[in-house]
């Protein structure tokens, strides 16, 4: 049982079922695997940008994922497990909604960067939650998470 401090109130964090962790990892990585090829096609064919520009947009997205991973780990350790993943989910939802209505040239890369940051927060939380799964060895949990991540990328 982990005790963390959030909103100046001590709360108790209990373990989570492994099946939900695996499902979350699979879905997050399946969604991420669609971003790369579809972004290239959309930017090049629909918006008429060069492949170099599309690659740079994906680079910015990846850098924001790394930034989200770093900040997500810091927030998970020092703030709140629940609120960190909630923040990441809100950012992803807002970025996805923004991209539905603003999918032109300057707005699309900005939305993609926001999406990358939120995904970075969430992916770090998924990996961090693996340490609080009860009744399973940690090595087993991380091996299955790795498998689900790869399965999500393949599909």
From TrEMBL:
For this protein, the record's Gene3D superfamilies field holds: MFS general substrate transporter like domains
Identify its membrane topology class: Multi-pass membrane protein
Whether Transport counts among this entry's keywords is yes
- PROSITE patterns the UniProt entry points to: MFS
Keyword field contains Membrane: yes
- Name the Pfam families on file: MFS_1 (PF07690)
Q: Which domain of life is it from?
A: Bacteria
- Transmembrane parts of this sequence: 20-44, 50-75, 82-101, 107-130
Q: Entry's InterPro entries?
A: MFS (IPR011701), MFS_dom (IPR020846), MFS_trans_sf (IPR036259), MFS_Transporters (IPR050171)
State the compartments where it is located. Answer: Cell membrane
Q: Coiled coil located at which positions? A: none
Sorted alphabetically, which keywords does the UniProt record give?
Answer: Cell membrane, Membrane, Transmembrane, Transmembrane helix, Transport
Domain (Major facilitator superfamily (MFS) profile) spans 17-155
- Please identify the protein, giving its name as recorded: Major facilitator superfamily permease
Organism lineage reads as: Bacteria, Bacillati, Bacillota, Bacilli, Lactobacillales
């Amino acid at each position: 049982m982990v005790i963390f401090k959030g909103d100046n109130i001590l709360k108790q964090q209990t373990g989570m079922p492994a099946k939900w962790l695996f499902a979350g990892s699979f879905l997050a990585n399946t969604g991420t695997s669609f971003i790369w090829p579809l972004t290239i096609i959309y930017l090049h064919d629909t918006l008429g940008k060069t492949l170099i520009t599309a690659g740079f947009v994906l680079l910015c997205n990846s850098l924001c994922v790394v930034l989200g991973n770093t900040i997500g780990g810091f927030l998970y350790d020092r703030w709140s497990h629940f609120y960190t993943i909630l923040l990441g989910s809100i950012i992803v939802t807002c970025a996805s909604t923004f991209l539905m209505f603003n999918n032109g040239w300057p707005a699309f890369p900005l939305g993609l960067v926001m999406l990358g940051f939120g995904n970075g927060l969430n992916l770090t939380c998924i990996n961090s939650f693996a340490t609080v799964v009860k009744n399973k060895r940690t090595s087993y949990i991380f091996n299955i998470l790795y498998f689900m991540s790869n399965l999500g990328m393949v599909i």
